[in-house]
Every structure is written in C-alpha cells, then in structure tokens.
C-alpha cells in the first residue's frame, strides 16, 4: 500500500459534536441506548483503560472521567475515553468498532480523518506500507517529547509506550524543538509585522518542515505550514518558491484528507492562480 491511499472507512456507532455547556456523559449514554443489541455488544467488547492510579489525575479532570479511569472495572465511560477519536469541529468525538483496534505508535504510518460528505472516519496511509506491516496511528501529539507522550498515554490509555521511537532518545530534541516552534507561530501575530519579522517567520516555518521530514512525521500540520510558507513567499514576490510550497501542501492534504476534501481543492486552485501569475510575468 502506498502513501496517500485510503485504506478503509467506517461509520461511528456514537458521534458527539459537543458544545461547551453540554453533558458529555449524558449524551454518551443516550447515544448508546439508541443502538441495536449487536452494536452495543461491539462496544462492550472494546478494550478499556481503567484501574489507573488515582494520583495521576488532578482537579482539572472532570470527576466522571477520573472515576472511569480509576474504577476497578470497565464501563461505558472508560471504553468511550479509551477508544473515541476526536476528529475536529466537523467530525466531533467518534466511537468506532474497528478503528480502535489500530494500535498506537509515536511514528505512525496512518492518519484518521473525517469525511463530512459520507459521515465516516477514513484511515489514510501516510507512508508506504509493506505487506504484513502493522497499521498504526498516534494517540498523542507527536510534537511532544518522550516523557510527555508516555505520561499522557499512561493517564489516558493505561499503557507504557514501548514503540521504537520511545525506546530511543534519537529525535527527542527535535520533537521538543518542533513543539516550541509550532506554539510560537500559533501564539504570535505576524500579520502586521515588518520584513525582518516576516523573514523570521519563514525561517521558523522552514525549520518545522525540516524537522518533520527528519522525524518522518506526516499530518495535516505539515500541509498548514507549507501553506503558510507559500503565503509568505507570495508576499515577497517569490512566486516559484510559493508554488513549490503549495504543491507540497497539496500532496500532504491529499495524503491525509483525500482528493475530494475542500482543503486539497483550494490549494490546487491556488497553485493554478500562482502559476498563471508566473506565466504572465515570464511572457512580459
């Protein structure tokens, strides 16, 4: 299977698109009660992270979640917390039957995306996958360092990560640097910045791309960074560099979201616009 190929899709048994004031636990039970007996049995057979030490949680954790994680036996709540996937504002939190069986790795070869048109979760290969090779997703932010990733996985999923990335210190500083750079770009406002500040932004974006490539990390953030790079290059009238960055963004969007996704089609349209501008300039 090659990178960018959609491997399979699945409709969720329970999907919650939550507002701030909604009761997640109540809506979870309402969704479960609407299911058939067979579908309920599928959920009841999912793995559950529970019986986790109480001292891993503080007051910031909702009481019902802390209770589910630390209880001595599995519950609907613990299975939901262990297996539901957050697929963004459009997809919400979804509980599937097959997708939760895909194991975790801090260097995944797949990503899970939401298809708004078919109302399904879609698993895409983001790397070439050999016959017999295991499909793996990341349950944690891959920009975090090893200790942060392991701590999160222990608290939320009840296991100690022993993937090849965590069993090696190689790349840990890269992950730390990635996280710092990405947070810096999110927190700072570069819109009204002068040329010096904008050149600094280009350097940071370029470094994020370099580090993600070194770490073999492919997710939508890579496309977002390439898109931002293209905008900065265009502002500086560097059309060739802008087109190159956009094509790379399109490649990642296609790989992670599919050719039918609006983000992919928008980037392809932007490439056409810039190529037309470059062609007119050349012919003048």
UniProtKB/TrEMBL annotation:
Domain SET: 1-140
Cited PROSITE patterns: SET
Pfam families: SET
InterPro entries for the chain: SET_dom, SET_dom_sf, SET_domain_protein
Xref: SUPFAM superfamilies: SET domain
Gene3D superfamilies the UniProt entry points to: SET domain (2.170.270.10)
Domain of life, per lineage: Eukaryota
Residue ranges of coiled coil: none
Alphabetical list of PANTHER family matching this protein: SET DOMAIN-CONTAINING PROTEIN 5
Protein name: SET domain-containing protein
